[in-house]
Write a structure and sequence with these properties.
Elements (H helix, E strand, L loop, with lengths): L1 H6 L24 E9 L2 H10 L3 E7 L11 H14 L1 E4 L6 E8 L2 E9 L20 H12 L7 E3 L6 H8 L4 E5 L2 H13 L6 E3 L9 E7 L10 H14 E8 L4 H6 L4 E9 L2 E8 L1
Bound molecules: S-adenosylmethionine (SAM).
């Protein structure tokens, strides 16, 4: 669902080609990106292209990576990078390269480009001062944010029941304008401290989501389910209904199947999946 939202297509394989320039660190489910510079039908042709183009790099190294269905074994890779390295104008720097290059062969086509790996920037958010055992995993929160906004980074996002701010932090680190509402004074205060710990501006409001009067482009609602506070079915339904008034698009996360309640609130479910954390299952619904 996240890849579909970012790249506008279903991705059946572990690799794919796209003309969209998405930072590989944006998603927890992208390992690396090769920004293709040249393709060729053989190593000799690729060497020739780099030589003619006078490919120049200040200091570089070749990164080794595996691609599902990639046809480049280790011996061929070593031979290839040696040959290519000979014609690239620049110094090989294994310790501090300013650029990393990558090659692979897919469907008998040699692919050469700039290699960038995912730096997993969300991992530092696991060190936030306050956590809750019922919080979303940071990876899940980041993927849900990507599902919510897709390509539209400037989308106005709201998390109407933000807890300690797991979703809010991921949105902030992706430079997405976000506001989080939290009814509990203690939890709202913890969310505020989590956000300011990473140097972000105030965007957490202590308040009841029923009182939100602003309209947002998209909402991510991790429905309260009464593990730490008592929430009745009626209250849950009322929160889903209230969301209809604040957003056009809703990403709803629930612990039980609530498809009927979602439809009753006037939403149409356009995509869905489940996420598991141990034995705990969460239902993710994209609603319009
Ligand atoms: C499932 S938790 C959110 C967890 C959060 N996504 C995280 O990963 O940390 C739901 C939160 O909604 C809050 N809440 C419940 N009713 C609310 C309401 N009417 N308005 C705003 N927040 C509410 C609860 O206090 C709880 O912290």
């Amino acid at each position: 669902m996240e890849m579909k939202s970012l790249f506008d297509k279903d991705i059946p394989k572990k690799y794919f080609f796209s003309s969209r320039s998405i930072d590989p660190s944006r998603s927890p489910f992208i390992k690396l990106r090769i920004s293709i510079l040249y393709t060729a039908s053989s190593l000799e042709e690729l060497v020739q292209i780099l030589s003619v183009e006078k490919m120049t790099c200040a200091n570089f190294k070749f990164a080794r990576f595996k691609v599902e269905e990639g046809q480049l074994d280790y011996a061929t890779w070593i031979h290839s990078v040696t040959e290519l390295g000979r014609v690239i104008q620049g110094e090989v720097d294994m310790k501090n390269p300013s650029i990393q290059l990558g090659i692979t062969i897919i469907d008998d086509r040699w692919i050469f480009g700039i290699y960038e790996r995912n730096e997993s920037p969300w991992e530092k958010h696991n060190l936030k001062p306050y956590t809750n055992s019922n919080s979303l995993e940071t990876r899940t929160a980041r993927a849900v944010v990507n599902i919510a906004v897709g390509q539209q980074i400037q989308t106005r996002l709201v998390d109407p029941c933000c807890g300690i701010g797991t979703v809010v932090l991921e949105a902030l680190s992706l430079a997405i304008p976000v506001t989080g509402y939290e009814i509990s004074w203690t939890i709202a205060n913890q969310a505020k401290q989590n956000v300011s710990y990473f140097g972000y501006d105030r965007c957490i409001i202590k308040g009841d989501m029923h009182e939100i009067t602003e309209k947002y482009d998209v909402a991510i609602l991790d429905l309260p389910y009464g593990l730490f506070s008592h929430v009745t079915d009626k209250q849950q339904k009322s929160i889903i209904h209230a969301s209809r008034h604040i957003t056009e698009k809703l990403i709803l996360i629930t612990c039980v199947d609530m498809d009927e309640e979602i439809t009753c609130a006037g939403f149409t479910i356009v995509d869905c999946c489940t996420v598991t954390k141990g034995t705990f299952v969460r239902y993710v619904r994209v609603c319009r």
